[in-house]
Amino acid sequence: KEQKTMARGRSGSAPADPPPLAPLGSLTLGPAPSSSFAPFASPPDLAVPALRPPAAADAFGRLLEDLASTSSDPRSARRAACCAALVEACRERRPGGGTTAGGEDGASPSEVFVASLAALTSLAERHESARASGDADDDGTALAEAALPLLEVLRRVLPHAAGGGNNSGAIVARAHGSAVRTLRMLAALARTMPGGDPSGKNGGRGGEAGPGALLRAVLSASSSLVLSAPEGAGGDAAGSALRSSVLPLLHDARPKVRRAAAAAALEVVSAPSAPVECYNAGDDVDPERYARLGRRRRDAADVVWEHCHGVLSGGAAGGRSGGKDGTDGGRRLVHVLRFLSSALPRADDVRIRVKFGEACVSLMGAGTVPADAAGECLACLLSCVDDSESGSGTTGGQGGEELSRFAARALAFLLQNRPPSGGGGGTVDRAGTAHARCVAACVGRMMAPPSAGEDPVKPPPAAVLAAKLLPDSFRSVLRLCGDGAGDEDGGPASEFNRLASLSAPRLASWIVSGGDGRRVALEALPRCVSAAEECLSVR
Fold it and tell me: Distance between terminal CA atoms of the chain?
């Protein structure tokens, strides 16, 4: 709420507080589930017409077959039993002999979605009531074992239930608030179980059906709910699901839960640049609907970006008090930086990368970054500049020019500041190697291969500036080699080779082409040799 500016740089205020979530009983889908839970309680009374196209019906039928299949894994048997019970309950609750209005004998996506959501809600309410009366199981294993197959069914059915061919996901839109409330309730129950404390180490008994496993399943279902949110779910439906179930767990003390939260958030921020069809198998092609869905996914991704930018801004301001969940501010910063290192190359807008790159530079320039977070901050800066592994295609044209201008600012900062020194050699090694990689990446970005419309005689300003700063870049990397940083991984020595291989072909092309580039290259090369000789004489 404190972050008022969108992370991708668009103007506008932060989203308003989400409206109060309606209880499940307020849905006009039939009777609300009873608080006394019988296994796979009967879902609300539904009569869903066959509005799905044949391709979507076939895809959903194959999904049900897959959910009902078993293997040597005991979890598959529980999932198959859960799926069979849900489908049978849907048939029994239908008026007219167990078939839909279109004559289909199998359950529809909306029916399975409502049935699984009703069973999960009843299960959570029953466990909460039993815990209040002191009758709950000791470690929450019974709750996890019953909820895990239901969460998997819910996660995999959601994209079909929210698809455009399934009445535009009207049922999902109406029940979205209740789904968010149920997932938030399950996450809260898991964190209050014995072994589910965020300060715990093992995540519950055995890890297979304990609080940690339940939280990971809730995270997977939450990301599917965010990506499948239909138009009628409300303006901030995706944001409410992210803030309640995903973003707080990015800072969980358990590595498995934290990695699951990062994977869920990564799926959300990658969705705007991914094909929409991969989440709506079998839908008819509707460009306008896909465009609206793309905008909703960008809004959901902005919620994740804003959360991360708020943590970085707090670190730059010297805030170490941590979050509302009691986590340490330094650890929150490290967790967010590690997530951004993987997420930023997948950003759909180059302005997001520039904004977070500026935040990293401000964070290091303020001198408030902890010693153990210095390497993570440099790695995050590297992901902002270097897109060799992103494949996102967001840095061409004007976006590439904007990123080159930021790379020039980042290079100037890196050349004026050395990586922080700490008490442990490992910290110095990681920071020194990351510093050298950032220098090489900035030079490579500024001296990128020429575009189709570039004048070969007059190189772009960013490339000319990189050539003028090339001797200082060589000197900075070679001095890091003298510090012995990262010897086990090649470290700055390998980055020196990379720096030379990136710059030499560009300088050679300028010499051949003539013009201003030839003059700049002939001035830079002798200075690069002098910088290398200076450092080698010290070594």
Answer: 52
